């Protein structure tokens, strides 16, 4: 099973231990931002790597780093790449704790990292152990155990299911009155998260009433959605603080609506979905758009035939948006002519439906029709175009003997990125320089990545020299290819040092330190001379001198 981690290095062997035996400090510095490397180096030098061990069975290293808290780090290999994960909350790429562990491994030597023996307990073995324990309990002990851990919400739901309609309505009216009062409470309306908690607390009191007072609960959900939308118009339920801004949202509320809908009989369910769809179409904001996304999940598999009959019978009276949202629920029940009719109707509001139409036509070898549909669609499009659609456009051009050069130009203009450029290249056009020029003007970063993937490093260097990139990107390029372009890299590093020495501040000092580090790897004598000059001429910049202390 592959974990989700941050890429560190290419592996030199299928064995992690052998791969890490060929890793050095310069390699570690190359896999992250210099500030992160510097902080990781400080953690390593301070002895904050508590332990590290090799788990051979899973081809990984486990370690613990004692920072603000104790964080768990794993270095592992998947196929021909080495990755790192950490339990810390850092939101960037490789963190300082991973760097500290790597430096510890290199310093200790991989052969001196202890091997950990792992006793694996499978999920099946855990189930067997639990089953054995539960079977030896008496009935009264099992009841006591269940009552100890059963959620309060579940108990309330059981109680509500046994309530008669008259009492259920009394409880509902209290809840409704309380919720309506929330939207007149100006203090609450300025606290979106508090409002969400208050709403959910009240709505949970209705759990179990779905089959007793279904109509009343459904109307209440719609009323809440409309009141929230109106509150937005009046400037309420809006979040604006240090961390950003945004409107009230509640996935829990959205799920409650869908759970309620799922319990309705199919006829009521379809009518309620129509009501929800109509309500969503009237909304000025997208707060409840998740409900639209979840609508298909409210249809239980045995209900798909009834749903299909209803949608086909009432197709002209239903909104295209509702048909679009429920199309996938009925697709397998439809004949090809029915699919084509609905997809033609829905293609204008959903690109995925349009792609399904193209697939349907191609499956029937109706290539010319499919090609014409895509031509018309793209001519009328002024926004995002799905990459899959462009793939079919190129493929259909070949199948219909169209002008692949013109189509390829149109495709790269619509979506100028590396993936499209690679596809166009595969058609063996005589000259793809036009397509590269489009990327150079509109997406130079992807063109640079393309040149690197194609090992066209001289073209990549020429692109870098065009002043199309921020300095951090240029630095990363020369950091990666300093050995291939030693002269250009050295000139760039010297210029970068000069520019950053003109200004004080830790961000400038960090750039000076990381630049010196790279320069040392291609011209150590020059770097040492510069270090000496900096220490003499800038000795009053204590933070800078501290950052350079490891050299």
TrEMBL record:
<keyword id="KW-0863">Zinc-finger</keyword>
<protein>
    <submittedName>
        <fullName>SWIM zinc finger family protein</fullName>
    </submittedName>
</protein>
<keyword id="KW-0862">Zinc</keyword>
<feature type="domain" description="SWIM-type">
    <location>
        <begin position="71"/>
        <end position="106"/>
    </location>
</feature>
<dbReference type="GO" id="GO:0008270">
    <property type="term" value="F:zinc ion binding"/>
</dbReference>
<dbReference type="Pfam" id="PF04434">
    <property type="entry name" value="SWIM"/>
</dbReference>
<dbReference type="InterPro" id="IPR007527">
    <property type="entry name" value="Znf_SWIM"/>
</dbReference>
<keyword id="KW-0479">Metal-binding</keyword>
């Amino acid at each position: 099973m592959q974990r989700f981690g941050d890429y560190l290095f290419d592996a030199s062997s299928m064995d992690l231990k052998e791969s890490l035996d060929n890793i050095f400090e310069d390699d570690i510095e190359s896999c992250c931002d210099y500030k992160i490397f510097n902080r990781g180096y400080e953690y390593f030098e301070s002895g904050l790597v508590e332990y590290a061990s090799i788990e051979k069975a899973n081809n990984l290293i486990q370690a613990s780093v004692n920072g603000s808290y104790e964080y768990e780090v794993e270095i592992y290999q998947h196929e021909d790449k080495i990755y790192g994960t950490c339990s810390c909350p850092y939101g960037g790429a490789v963190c300082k704790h991973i760097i500290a562990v790597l430096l510890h491994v290199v310093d200790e030597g991989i052969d001196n990292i202890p091997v950990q023996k792992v006793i694996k307990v499978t999920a099946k073995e855990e189930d067997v152990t639990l089953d054995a324990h539960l079977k030896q309990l008496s009935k009264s002990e099992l009841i006591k155990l269940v009552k100890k851990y059963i959620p309060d919400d579940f108990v309330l739901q059981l109680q509500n299911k046994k309530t008669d309609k008259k009492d259920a309505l009394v409880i509902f009216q209290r809840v409704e009155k309380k919720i309506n009062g929330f939207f007149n409470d100006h203090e609450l309306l300025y606290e979106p998260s508090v409002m969400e908690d208050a709403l959910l607390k009240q709505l949970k009191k209705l759990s179990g009433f779905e089959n007793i007072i279904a109509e009343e609960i459904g109307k209440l959900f719609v009323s809440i959605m409309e009141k929230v939308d109106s509150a937005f118009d009046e400037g309420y339920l809006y979040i604006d603080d240090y961390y950003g801004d945004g409107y009230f949202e509640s996935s829990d509320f959205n799920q409650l609506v869908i759970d309620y809908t799922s319990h309705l009989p199919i006829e009521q369910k379809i009518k309620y979905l129509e009501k929800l769809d109509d309500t969503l179409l009237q909304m000025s904001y997208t707060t409840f758009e998740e409900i639209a996304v979840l609508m298909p999940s409210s249809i239980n598999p045995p209900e798909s035939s009834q749903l299909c009959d209803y949608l086909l019978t009432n197709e002209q009276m239903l909104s295209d948006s509702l048909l679009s949202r429920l199309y996938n629920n009925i697709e397998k029940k439809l004949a090809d002519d029915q699919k084509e009719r609905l997809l033609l109707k829905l293609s204008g509001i959903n690109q995925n439906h349009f792609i399904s139409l193209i697939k349907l036509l191609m499956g029937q070898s109706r290539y010319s029709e499919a090609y014409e549909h895509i031509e018309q669609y793209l001519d009328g499009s002024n926004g995002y175009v799905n990459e899959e659609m462009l793939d079919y456009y190129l493929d259909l051009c070949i199948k219909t003997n169209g002008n692949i050069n013109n189509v390829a130009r149109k495709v790269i203009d619509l979506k100028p990125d590396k993936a499209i450029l690679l596809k166009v290249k595969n058609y063996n056009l005589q000259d793809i320089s036009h397509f590269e020029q489009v990327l150079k003007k509109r997406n130079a970063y992807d063109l640079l990545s393309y040149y690197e993937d194609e090992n066209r490093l001289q073209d990549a260097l020429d692109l870098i020299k065009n002043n199309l990139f921020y300095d951090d990107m240029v630095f990363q390029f020369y950091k990666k290819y300093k050995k291939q372009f030693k002269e250009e890299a050295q000139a760039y590093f010297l210029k970068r040092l000069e520019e950053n020495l003109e200004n004080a501040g830790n961000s400038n000092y960090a750039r000076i330190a990381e630049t010196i580090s790279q320069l040392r790897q291609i011209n150590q004598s020059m770097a040492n001379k510069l270090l000496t000059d900096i220490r003499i001429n800038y000795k009053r910049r204590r933070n800078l001198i501290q950052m350079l202390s490891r050299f």
